[in-house]
Amino acid sequence: MTRFRPCIDLHAGQVKQIVGGTLSDTSSDLKTNHVSKLPASHFGEIYRKHRLNGAHVIMLGPGNESAAQEALEAWPGGLQVGGGITAENARQWIERGAEKVIVTSYLFPQARFSLDNLKAILEALNGDAEKLVVDLSCRRIGGRWMVAMNKWQTLTDMEVNWGEIETGPGPSIRLLEPFCSEFLIHAADNEGLQSGIDGELVVKLGQWCTIPVTYAGGAKHLEDLDVVKRLSAGKVGLTIGSALDVFGGGSVKFDDCVRWNQQQDIR
After folding, report:
1. Which has the closest alpha carbon to 94: 109, 82, 104?
2. What is the pLDDT of residue 91?
3. Euclidean distance between CA atoms 179 and 119, whole angstroms
4. Which of 104, 203, 248, 267 has the least CB density, counted as fewest CB within 10 Å?
5. Among 86-100, 140-154, 203-217, which stretch is predicted with the lowest mean pLDDT?
6. How far apart are CA 54 and CA 182, in angstroms?
7. With 0-12 CB in 10 A as exposed, 13-18 as middle and 19+ as buried, what is 127?
8. What distance in Å separates the CA atoms of residue 226 and residue 2, rounded to the nearest whole number?
9. Among candidates 57, 111, 112, 110, which has minimal Cα distance to 85?
10. CA-based radius of gyration for the chain
11. Is 38 strand, coil or helix?
12. Long-range CB contacts for residues 168-171, cutoff 8 Å, separation at least 24
């Protein structure tokens, strides 16, 4: 269902809001909208206070494990965690307090989808698909959305679709849904730009997905929650990042997002 679902993006051990398309291994390429003076645990605490279920912690590169752990300790069992998740460490993050783990790159060795890796990470979670979120963050290539990995710099062979276009390893949504409980999809070309959401992608996600899905990228107004609700028929959640006042933004107040969620709950 459509709800405000917040994030804690970690880079070099700090909570940051980054222009997604500039993430790379070269620090000079990075464009940052905001670097918080507050620790990750602060955001975990306020998300817990307001019961903002589905909040996700994303480790963008190395050096973020301690900050992620601090966030999890602030809300044990309440936050999803992603970034560098593999079959070897997935169970460990659940034991350290994550509600769910979010996986992307591990599913795409050499940028090619591996069903064996998907099965391996689910096995590491004792077959519990409720503990797994698949991140299908993507970049728009023509009229298609291709899953991107490696800080969204490397395109994979998987297209985000349901089945009308039979390319690559096959229809991604239909293939993946039995193995996970949610999808997280950043529109990487929109991420951090506050340039507006990819409405066409939101419509398609509402049509394709039968499990919960959260869209992130480009949100700049509180009204974007209403837009996503309308476009997806109430099926897609929305993450607002750089526009949010708690992340230095000037166009969306965190408290207003909390109230929006509360209003949906009583309708």
Report:
1. 82
2. 98
3. 8
4. 267
5. 140-154
6. 10
7. exposed
8. 9
9. 57
10. 17
11. coil
12. 168/113, 169/112, 169/113, 169/115
Q: What is the mean pLDDT of the chain?
A: 90
Nearby residues of 127 by Cβ (< 8 Å), 6 or more positions away: none
Give me the amino acid identity at 58. Answer: I
| Dist. CA 191–CA 16, nearest whole Å | 13
Helix (H, G, I), strand (E, B) or coil at 73: helix
CA–CA gap between residue 55 and residue 240 (Å, rounded): 11
The counts of H helices and E strands in the chain are: 8, 13
H or E, element range at 228: helix 223-231
Confidence class of residue 170 from pLDDT cuts 50, 70 and 90?
A: low
Written as one letter, the residue type at 192 is G
Q: What is the pLDDT of residues 9-24, one digit of tens each?
A: 999 999 998 765 545 4
Number of residues that this document lists for the chain: 267
CB of 4 closer than 8 Å to CB of 47: no
Q: pLDDT digit string (tens) for 106-160?
A: 999 999 999 999 999 999 999 999 999 999 999 999 889 999 988 778 999 999 9
